[in-house]
Amino acid sequence: MRYFIWLSYTGGAYCGWQRQPNGMSVQQRVEEALATILRQPTPLTGAGRTDAGVHARRMAAHLDTDVPIDDPAGLVGRLNRLLPPDIAVWSLDAVRPDAHARFSATARTYEYTVTGVKDPFAPPAVHRMVLRGVDFEAMNRAAATLLDYRDFTSFSKLHTDVKTNLCHVTRAEWRRQGDRWTFTITADRFLRNMVRAIVGTLLEVGRGRLSEEGFRHVIEALDRSQAGDSAAAEGLALVEVHYPADIYL
User: Fold this and answer.
1) Residue 6 φ then ψ, to 5°
2) What span, in angstroms and rounded, lies between the C-alpha atoms of 68 and 58?
3) Percentages (nearest 5) of helix, strand, coil residues in the chain
4) Catalytic residue flag (residue 51)
5) What pLDDT does 224 receive?
6) For residue 136, which of 191, 195, 179 has the smallest C-alpha distance?
7) Minimal CA–CA distance to 111: which of 199, 194, 188, 184?
8) What single-letter DSSP state applies at residue 248?
9) How far, in Å, are 4, 7, 64 from residue 97 at the CA level?
10) Helix ranges restricted to H, 15-165
11) 96, 62 contact by CB (below 8 A)
12) pTM above 0.90, yes or no
């Protein structure tokens, strides 16, 4: 049987979602808990990989097991008792044998949140920075141009193993929520470091260092050195992975 496991985590203590030889990952933590309960190695395949320090409100991964899972809700409870406080499992859903956490996804949505207020009760996925003078309307106009393009090489980490830098962005906007501003972006796929590079470059627009037309030129240059610095990892969260309804049993 193949199952999708849905989980959330704050990424501050981890080297990212994917297993790494030099640090603890979210994937490793969850796989170890599954192996303890199911009494056999249980590899996970994630919907993607979040970088070190990046959070996930709704991350999906699939697993295959010959061990019958007669009580998925009970397994979720046992996993949550084994996992540390910064990882939470929400559900375990049976899916078709050909359903794939990464390749069956039709879209993914990320949010990047900033605030200018020091708040000890702020959630983890918020980056505090100086917002005085930042023009979010200009940033929104620049963000809207992302929907006009497909090649996002200018916002990709260099020397990755992907075969194409083409992505279809369907939403990109900043919204104010009290003392916070959140950038929401949805696309069929994302490149390594893409969202943080976009946010960093949009902030250059907001600070008046880059014009809206200049933002277009950055995209069209297909050159990472033309874009701004990547925004800090702590403000970024994967908030949804979208799948067709017919993958579920």
Assistant:
1) -110, 130
2) 25
3) 30, 30, 45
4) yes
5) 94
6) 179
7) 184
8) B
9) 11, 20, 9
10) 26-38, 72-82, 136-144
11) no
12) yes
Which of the residues 51, 66, 151, 179 is marked catalytic? Answer: 51
Burial 205-227 (b: 16+ CB within 10 A, else e): bbeeebeeeebeebbeeeebebb
E strand segments, the chain: 2-9, 45-46, 55-64, 87-95, 107-115, 127-128, 169-177, 180-187, 236-242
Tell which residue, 27, 106, 24, has the closest CA to residue 62.
27
Separation CA 77–CA 155 (nearest Å): 40
**What residue type is assigned to position 151 of the chain?**
D
How far apart (Å, rounded) are the C-alpha atoms in residues 80 and 9? 12
Give the pLDDT score at 19: 92
Calpha distance 156→135 (Å, rounded): 25
CB 54 within 8 A of CB 237: yes
Q: pLDDT tens for the chain, 249 residues: list them.
A: 999 999 999 999 999 999 998 899 999 999 999 999 999 999 999 999 899 999 999 999 999 998 778 899 999 999 999 999 999 999 999 999 999 999 999 999 999 999 999 999 888 899 999 999 999 999 999 999 999 999 999 999 876 677 889 999 999 999 999 999 999 999 999 999 999 999 999 999 999 999 999 999 999 999 999 999 999 999 999 999 999 999 998
Position 9 scores a pLDDT of 97
DSSP, collapsed to helix, strand or coil, labels residue 68 as coil
